[in-house]
Amino acid sequence: MFHLMPFSTGTPLVVLLLTTVLSLAGGANALGAWHEGFETPQTSWRDAGGDARYRILKHQRLQGDAHSGKGCEWLRLEGRGGSHVYVAHDVGRPPVIDELAPSAWVKSDRPGPQLYARIVLPRTIDKRTGRAVAAIIAGGAYTAVGRWQQLRLDGIPRLLTRQIHVLRMQLGPQVDGREAYLDAVLLNVYSGPGETNVWIDDLEVAGHVALGRERTVAPPAAAETWASLGIVRLPPPDQKKPPGPRRSVKLVGGVLLVDDRPMFPRVVQHCGEPLAALKKIGFNAVWLKSLPAPELLEEADRLGLWLICPPPRPVATASLAEITPSLDCVLVWDLGGELDEAELEATRVWARQVRAADRRGNRPVICRPMMDLRGYSRATDLLLLDRRPLGTSIEMADYAAWVGRRPLLASPGTPVWTTVQTQPNEALHGQLMALEPDRTPPLGVSSEQVRLLVYTAVAAGSRGLVFLSDSPLDAPDEDTRRRAMTLELINLELELIEPWAAAGRFAATAESNVPEVSGSVLRVDRAQLLLPIWSSPDAQCVPAKSASEALSLVVPGVPEASNAYLLTPSGVQPLRRKRIAGGVCVALGEFDLTAQVLLAHDPLIVGAVYRRVARSGRRAAELQRALAAHELKTVRSIAGLLAARTPVASSPARLDAARKSLQECDAKLAAGDLSGAALGARRTMRSLRLVKRSIWEAARRGLVSSATSPAALGFDTLPCHWRMVDRLAAGRFGMNMLGGGDFEDVGTMMRAGWQNLFHADPNVQTAVDLAPQSARSGRLGLRMTAAAADPRNPPAVVERPPVLLTSPTVDVEAGAIVCIHGWVRVPAPIEASTDGLLIVDSLGGEDLADRIGQTDGWRQFALYRAAPRSGPMCVTFSLSGLGEAWLDDVAIQVLGRPAATARR
User: Fold this and answer.
1) What are phi and psi of 200, to 5 degrees?
2) What are phi and psi of 687, to 5 degrees?
3) Is the pTM of this model over 0.85?
4) Which of 76, 530, 562, 793 yields a CA-CA distance of 20 to 30 A from 205?
5) 171: pLDDT confidence band, cut at 50, 70 and 90?
């Protein structure tokens, strides 16, 4: 989360990034060290403000209770609400260098105090205030209640680089990190409601180099408006553009109209890149986390890019001032994400205030609720659906069902947008880092997987796509370049079908001669669009071979005069069709994972499509060629690394076929045959998919499920998976640390700490008990059940899991490999949900959960996880819908460390 917050007079504007940084052991290799031992009577920490309501009750130097020497500084404060109260200490303003590392020894009667560094960027002046901009970087947090603990902050240059991207999102591309210096060390001394005592000693700054001159900073401005997560300064009243005609934005029948023309938003999250770079990739809108600075507004207006951002938010229930023309480039107002029932009323009030203040623009409002979709759909105009299946146990077919069924929880007719994952989820990244802290994990997902998500969402009726991005798309690394090319190509494809994506109505489902392939038909006046999609099992990990043989689909309801055309950004190809019983049969010679098939007879529509393809053809072919070349290089490298591990006899031949197809692509591109070049690139990718899938399946063969090993949830991470297998083979698992997992006695379970968490739902009846028929071993096993309160009218979708069973916690050390295992039986399909029974460990979280549907008898589950930090962990069993699940023999074991570990 990002905050703009004021400090006392004489300090700079600060942008606070609440990034958790683990406290690292050991000292810095310091050029010099600045030290404060707190031995004199005069206090030196000063109140620096915060968002809580607080009073500092006591603040003085004490003698005799120090970490070292005789003296320390002590504060007692009382507070409520908010999350932070800062005290600041001047340290002489040393420049930011690699060795710079502040630290302090802290003792408290509550956990939570945290160390921060305030870094000033003297070359960046906020034009709105005339003050230098500063960033706050978070360090270690206090956990050793009642004992002295050193809090450190290492790696400041690296963390500052990340924050500069954040600052550019808010202040524009001119943010300059050169000549940055440490202005002060901060300590958040607030640990929640009530009184907190904090003792501080031995403040030190390693790598301290004194500056030759002091720097001055202007005082903070007075006029501020509260936003949802801090203080955000609004753009000044527009002085360049007088109120007048503007591009109209309205929502009519679920269709977004801009100047009365349907628009399909292709939105990307902003990560500090120049907006021109995002425009070049093909996006027509950018999602911001806060109100934009005037410079960013001007850039968006100049480029013709729409913005989506939070609206102004007033204090309490005060009305908003009229929104000025300076924000005319805002397309939709964002009212926040991860919302539940507790925030519904506040969101409803905010939406009313925004509509009253935006009478001139009357733009739609959107939010991303986690619960109570019906309530939020009545408060806002649009809902954003967010699910990230890549690198998880969520099958693509289940993802498609979720995207299609989730809107049933909202008010009928509510239009939805859908997020599109473009990078591995944070939980997977965290597990890879915990397994191998000294290696940089792969940061990409395949272009085919992103395309599957896009086509699935459009086919399900999503009226806009928000491409998720955690890092800048203009970075020079290989993973980012591949990601940017993937998104540019997909944007070209989406431009081609915008009339159907923006305003098309679902007309029918087309069945094919391949079970894994089906297609949705979207209809607009005088034309239909067929979107066939290949949903193979485990495609969220590694997509399977596509149907290179002839594919045929039967499309119902097609007018007799309609012709069929295969659309790609590189060309238009007429297709064979014939009328049969049930509709029109359309044949595709070589089907990839997805396709676009136009069914139309109007020559004006067909001509418009040809003209659009002519504009994008060469660039699309070049992008497909570049992506195929990148994929060939990556697959060849990983296949070589794993040749001894997973010898796949056909891999060399398929790699050679991919190389030859890429050569054919190059020849066609040089000759100006754009359709032929694109076909050569697709054939290259198909051969490489066969190689990747074969190698992945060989690694997957020894696992209980795809969720068992986090590093086996994709192809690029398989080398990490095999190194983990080596660690497992070299070590030995210890005793079971989980009490009550045999489910033989309720009293034993309760004493151990098992908890059954109920979610009250009048439409669902639940039960958790021990039953003889649920036993795999021993006398009893655990049974979880959820049933419709009215069996004659069961809910089509259950919004939240009816039953949650959580285990006792088990303490693990940082870096340890943990195995959570047991047995489960699901006698019948779980209805009203696509997730079945979820097994969620607290180290990997729900993103890495195992999802189990109907089983053939008892099925074992096993999850190998690495502990990113020392502390407690647990496992939760979540029955996501209506049905029954049995559990038995659940255990948690920790891998012992071998005497010597061979590094491969």
Assistant:
1) -130, 135
2) -60, -40
3) no
4) 76
5) low
